[in-house]
């Protein structure tokens, strides 16, 4: 008879499984966010690497024509 009373007062197993489901979802979301951050960081590093180190060396443009443009002088104090 006491075993029937203990069985009736025991909490259902669904509460533990709900907690496990929430933990699993939280872990999956965290992993997805970390993956997205790593992908974004990789893309950012590549874009900066491309800008900082161009494949063609920089050569200044050579101007063959001389265009005289009047420039006003700014007085300094």
What does this structure look like?
The chain is an all-alpha fold and 77 residues long. The protein has a domain at 29-55. It is built from 2 helices and no strands. The protein has helices at residues 2-9, 14-52. The chain is rod-shaped. The model has no long low-confidence stretch (mean pLDDT 76).
What layout of secondary structure does this protein have?
Elements: H1 2-9, H2 14-52
Quick description:
This protein is 61% helix and 0% strand. It is built from 2 helices and no strands.
Key structural traits:
about 80 residues, mainly alpha, 2 helices
What fraction, in percent, of the residue positions are helical?
Answer: 55-70%
- Assembly form of the protein: single chain
Low-confidence stretches: none
Q: DSSP strand (E) fraction?
A: under 5%
> Which structural class fits the helix and strand makeup?
mainly alpha
Number of helices: 2
How many strand segments? 0
Provide the residue-averaged pLDDT: 76
Give the SSE string. Answer: HH
What sort of overall outline do the alpha carbons produce when their principal axes are compared? rod-shaped
- Biggest sheet statistics: none
Distance between the termini: 105 Å
Any idea what the radius of gyration is? 35 Å
